[in-house]
Amino acid sequence: MKRVDDFRLMFGKxxxxxxxxxxxxxxxxxxxxxxxxxxxxxxxxxxxxxxxDVSDRRFDTSFVKDKTRFYKHNIDNSDKSIIKFDLGVLxxxxxxxxEATMEAKRGDGLIFVNCxxxxxxxGPRETLEVRMKSALxxxxxxxxxxxxxxxxxxxxxxxxxxxxxxxxGIIVSSVRALQIFLRKNAxxxxxxxxxxxxxxxxxxxxxxxxxxxxxxxxxIIAEIVQYLQxxxxxxxxxxxxxxxxxxxxxxxxxxxxAAVQVATRFTVANECGLxxxxxxxxxxxxxxxxIVNTISPTGYPMRMLKSTPAIGSGIRPNxxxxxxxxxxxxxxxxxxxxxxxxxxxxNSKNISVKEKTCLCTHMRNFNCWTCGHTTYRLKDTTxxxxxxxxxxxxxxxxxKDYQFSVDQQVALPA
Length: 414
What we know:
Elements lengths: L8 E3 L2 E3 L2 E3 L9 H9 L3 E5 L3 H9 L3 H8 L16 H17 L6 E7 L7 H14 L4 E5 L6 H4 L10 E6 L2 H10 L9 E5 L5 E2 L11 H14 L6 E4 L5 H8 L5 E4 L13 H9 L5 E4 L8 E4 L27 H12 L14 H6 L30 H10 L10
Parallel strand pairs: 3-4, 3-11, 4-5, 5-6, 6-7, 7-8, 8-10, 10-11
Antiparallel strand pairs: 1-2, 9-13, 12-13
Helix pairs in contact: 2-4, 4-5
């Protein structure tokens, strides 16, 4: 009976344990979590979501406070088009986060940064370019392009000296999305180094519509593997979404995947950035507690716990401090929904906005409990303590359980 450890992910002549820990923001996939994956010979992700805020928390900078002070005159204005990110500050925040992580790296694995196209930041092209180039400047091993088709993202960094040196990958949820990406970037003569195929059971934003349940990860993987073989393209395919055990991972590795990306089980790792109180919510969740809704301003469906405080919250948009989802014209679907409710209830001190949520503020405060479909199984991976809470686990324990377990077994903590 095979284990994940019987396989290896190959990048050129170098081999890695075929386990990749996904990039969860905002600083849920912490540097500490990514570093453990790399130390153990796999691949870990950090996220550059709201990186200015991450820098403030980790390095005692004051980027968010300074931005808030600069735009405080606009707080009561529903028009947020004037709010721009200082590109120099964005570059510095990215470099700080990435450099500190890379300097701490030990072991033979790799550290990647997850870079979301949907973080449009009222300057979609220029802010994305700065984030990617600054990460490359700071020595990141690779960049995973997520939350979008990224049709122009390779071109933004094509003139960077590490464009062909760093590992560059793309997350897709269909063979068509991959075909469009490859066709758009053919003129650059630069294939992605890996393709992460994220299925409908993944956590957070989904690359499907509300008909997500009609799709199946194994089927999509098979279609993409067949397409790459037909086109004679040697690109490692990495399966993601709903892979809960080492045996689940082996089934994909035996059927054409070069590695697996996992995240849900690491949400309750000691090294994960979620507060302990949120981790306990994940442990307690039943399958009925996990829903997919459309409250994200990005337009993508999003999976989360139905008890998440972000649902129905009517907090005032805080774009002067954050504004990471402002489109190129300073608009955001939450601002529109919020202003509509204010217009309907002009004298109400507390309003409820059910259509959308202020993702920036709620993710920053860990009040948007996004999760994978298999979150309800987390309680089966640990022990319940005398006070009724569940024991959190080390990232090493979870990683090695994926790596060495067989027969759908899950190792409980000592």
